[in-house]
Design goal:
Length: 193
């Protein structure tokens, strides 16, 4: 079974993925795949540098500089996604060739990238915006304004609710959410035809 996990940044997807890993699932974290590709795939980095001059220096992506451009300009973000989705999708498809019995694809752009077509089910993880902002500020050591800009640049909660098969609301404690995920994903694996 391949489960697509999506939702905005700071919603708690990591907790959901930890539970799937606990159940023996292979985790395909598209952010991690993207960062690995930035180190190993010169074509990807070159395309980003060509479209966003000044965001690559000495073979390294200047993430905050790129973020300042794309999180304030929807067309720039669309252009970046157009470049990165193709590379990430290829890497995910390659990893799934091993035919794992349980796998999770973690991608904020699960639907937009086309990765959802590889999934048996898709699950959106949601959380209140203020909670997400606080998490991002602590996790990424960024100011509130930048955290809010990152959230605003992503699809709304309604988008995820509309395009996913299931929604897991992260509106309690971390332990409560972990237990909710365990019950939900255990049930999905049992229900698998």
């Amino acid at each position: 079974m391949i489960i697509g996990i999506t939702g905005g940044t700071g919603c708690g997807k990591t907790t959901a993925l930890e539970v799937i890993a606990q159940l023996g699932g292979m985790i395909l974290d598209c952010d991690a795949i993207y960062h690995d590709l930035l180190k190993a795939n010169r074509d990807l980095l070159g395309q980003i540098a060509a479209r966003f001059p000044g965001t690559v220096a000495e073979g390294q992506l200047l993430r905050k500089k790129l973020g300042q451009v794309v999180f304030s300009d929807p067309q720039a973000l669309s252009d970046l996604n157009g470049i990165t989705h193709r590379f990430v999708c290829q890497a995910v498809e390659e990893a799934l060739k091993t035919k794992p019995p349980l796998a999770a694809i973690d991608a904020i752009a699960l639907v937009e990238s086309g990765l959802s077509r590889l999934c048996d089910v898709t699950v959106a993880v949601t959380a209140p915006v203020d909670v997400r902002v606080a998490r991002l500020m602590v996790r990424d050591r960024i100011p509130e304004s930048y955290a809010r800009a990152r959230i605003a640049a992503q699809p709304s909660e309604d988008f995820f609710r509309t395009h996913c098969d299931y929604v897991l609301e992260n509106n309690g404690t971390a332990q409560e959410f972990r237990e909710k995920c365990l019950a939900f994903f255990s049930g999905l694996v049992i229900m698998k035809p």
